[in-house]
Amino acid sequence: MDCVSLPPLSKFAICGGTHGNEMTGIHLLRHLQKHKVEKAGSVSITTVLSNPRAIDACKRYIDTDLNRCFTHTLLRTPITDSSPYELQRAHELNAIVGPKGSEEAVDLICDLHNTTANMGLCVIFNSTDLMALHIYKYIKSKITSVPVRAIDTREPISENYSLDSVGKYGFSFEVGPQPNGVLRADVFNVMKEAVDLTIEWIQQFNSGVTFDGGEAETYCPVNKVDYPRDPTTNEITAAIHPELQDNDFKPLQPGDPIFQSFAGETVKHEGKGLHPVFINECAYYEKRTAFILAEKITVTFPSICVKKDCGV
Fold first, then answer.
1. For the chain, what is the largest distance between any 2 Cα atoms, rounded to a whole number of angstroms?
2. pLDDT band at residue 312 using 50, 70 and 90 as cut-offs
3. Does the reported pTM lie above 0.90?
4. Calpha distance 100→94 (Å, rounded)
5. Which of 2, 164, 188, 249 has the fewest CB atoms within 10 Å, counting from its CB?
6. What architecture (CATH level 2) is domain 4-217+300-310?
């Protein structure tokens, strides 16, 4: 494939606290703000604490999940005094780092998240985003302390509901396991290294380095699996099976244990072999999701370089 020339990245936004109880991004953002990290070489850096009221309350959200509020439809919905706080905040953020789909939007957004699942460092993006693919490839080649994997959302930009979709390019870091409301040094170190490497990659890209294309393994979500439930009360009747717990991304074959009922019975996986992710994620109980099943795919992508005729 021919090398693809893309404009330089002059505006980079780092967001944290989109979920107010995911502490790594919050404290990393505060650290960057304290040390006035506002520029690196030719790129200006904006740091945004996304959900201030949820951060103050140490809750995932106040009224509704902020990271589900950034579709074109929701961003065009008129705001009233009765609108959910997070929808109002989404409109404010769209004005700060967007508007989504416009030339005025920042060039790249990185949104910082934690998970209670054993995901290591996970980069979440759409595989049509060449910038995100190359940044993922670069980070994966550098970080060895934890597994580095990619989840491919494959969602059209207009339907993508996450904050990182507001920029021209964007992705999220998901690092875990870490309990909600807790800050672990090892998880903080991994996220800081990933952010530092992202800034390093941007500087190299803007300076004229060509990044070779190739292949990357990604995981594409295909199905959500709910907990077994009592048909009358709707309460869950089983927990994640010990043999599945903490085994995110490992192949799950038909007949493998997935749940253990409170009576001690084993529920086994039915259907084709896939890869479970976000196993027993705390925030997904309310979404009726015990884990997500993903298909492992190989993405082929071209080399990229900066357009020579673009100034930074």
1. 68
2. very low
3. yes
4. 6
5. 2
6. 3-Layer(aba) Sandwich (3.40)
